[in-house]
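Reading a protein record of the kind used here takes only a little practice. The record below shows the convention in full:
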Amino acid sequence: MSQNNANDKSFANTLNIWILQHNYARSTQIMHACMKFAKNKTDIVILQESWMRDENITISHSSNIQNTYVRVLIFVAKNVKKFTCTSRSDIVNSEDMQAISIANNKIQKRILLFNIYNEKSQYADDEQLYTIERELAKVMLNSEQKVIIIEDFNAHHSWWNAKISNFIRTKALINWVNLHRCNLINTSDIDTYHSYSSQSSLILDLTFASKNMRNHIKNWHIDENADTEFNHEVILFTIVTEKMKLIENSLNALYNLQKVNWKDFNEHLQKTKDKMIVKMQRITSLKAKVIYLTECIKNTVKLFVFKQWICAKSKLWWNNELIEMQKTLSSIKRIWKRCRENDAWAEIVQMRNSYHDAIKLIKNQFWINFLNNVEEKKVFQTYKFTKSRLIEKLSSIQNLQKELKIEFNEKCKTFLKAMYSSSSKIQINEELLLNESIQWSRVIEEKIKHAINFSAFRKAFESNDISFTIIQRAYISILKIFNLVYSDLIENDYHSKIWREGTRIILKKSDKLNYSISKTYRIITLLNCLDKVAEKIIAVQLFYTAEINDKLLDFDQIRDRKQRSAIDAVLNLVHDA
């Protein structure tokens, strides 16, 4: 396959996983140009020679080695649905080599992808071995493992470059590749690196794949339109998968409440209110009433409340001037590749420097203009732009048998066993039980209204559920239905299983030595807001019942009672004395 006639089926073909590889030589400008091209065109971006220190990095990285430069990075598109990625720090933990596993519901077994920058160690006291000898040689995989290796190898061999007769830094690589039966994906003798100073071309950026992955990789090619004006070419290829069933991304579940037309929302509920009341009165099952109320609200939400669309962030400062400069530079570089003349090379150097200077200037000017015009609430937007955006995925977890669990489902089971172990039965002291029943006060409309309207609208809610803002808006139009349902549920002591479902969030505890142990995490649960309303009503009922019945609470009980303060405690103390 030639460089220009790669069979590009368009990024819109969501059945394929598109991967971009590039070495950007520690240049922020080149990285910006590369990521701008990758937006809406690739799913995974593989970068080498990033040279980012650990205190400056704003993305997660498997390496936890301090005081070194991270020289490999992997970016995964935020809005991707067709596969999942997991960092594999259990396989390799290095600043020069990174591993992730890729999975979807059609490719059998996970794909293990390695990103390698083959260079000497950053430690002066090391034996100065290259990354392949230092890290890759230690990795031993079973014969059934699907593997893709993407590297800036800095190695020379006739396997990928027929002009080479003197093999350099290839012995360890060839041994490992042959041991794991990997095939070369590169099209032979297509240069991936051009030295403008010496006007020579080499093949340094390579892609290998295991035998069982070879048929899944298509369209390896160099994209001339994605030229970042650096010596290394931008390489693209595709992992072809079978047609799969796509599921809703949980990140897209939050509703965009700022753009809702609440007038139409309420008018729709008003029109259907009478029909809903008649149907609710005919329903005898409490479970059916809960389901019907929930579905009525959700169906209205689907019509008028849209979900937030998580998409790749565009660089707002990237303008038409930069686009035209990039096209011009790509054209000049193609001319130089054909003629290799000194004048063409000099023009490339001049235009490339102008291009990188323009990126710096335009980005800086955009940021200055934004800060000069920032007002009121946009101050928080400024903070969001500048704060650390470190995102860490859950690492591998040990179970009770000290076995390391990598798959998401296995991690969930490990957490459930460790944090929700079977506890002993609750002991009830029968001497404290009252011999007589206590009259339970009737649920009145004012209590329901108070519980709904005084709920914090910013409170976290279950990802696929209805927020307090939606409940408050719906209550305005169908308050009779809310009153009917909550009265029946509470007076009949019914707690619906549907409303008891929640979403558990795993949070990492700070300053722990080993995060493969489940006890270094804590779990919070996001509950159903409709159920929270019922709990608020019951809490008010309990408070009222305790206040009017002198057998439940001592007269001098102060704590957790409304309209009782420290003054009451002092008066009681003085009076009793």
Summary: Residues 117 and 152 are 5 Å apart (CA to CA). The mean pLDDT is 78. The chain has 15 helices and 17 strands. The chain has four domains: 16-240, 250-309+439-576, 322-386, 392-421.
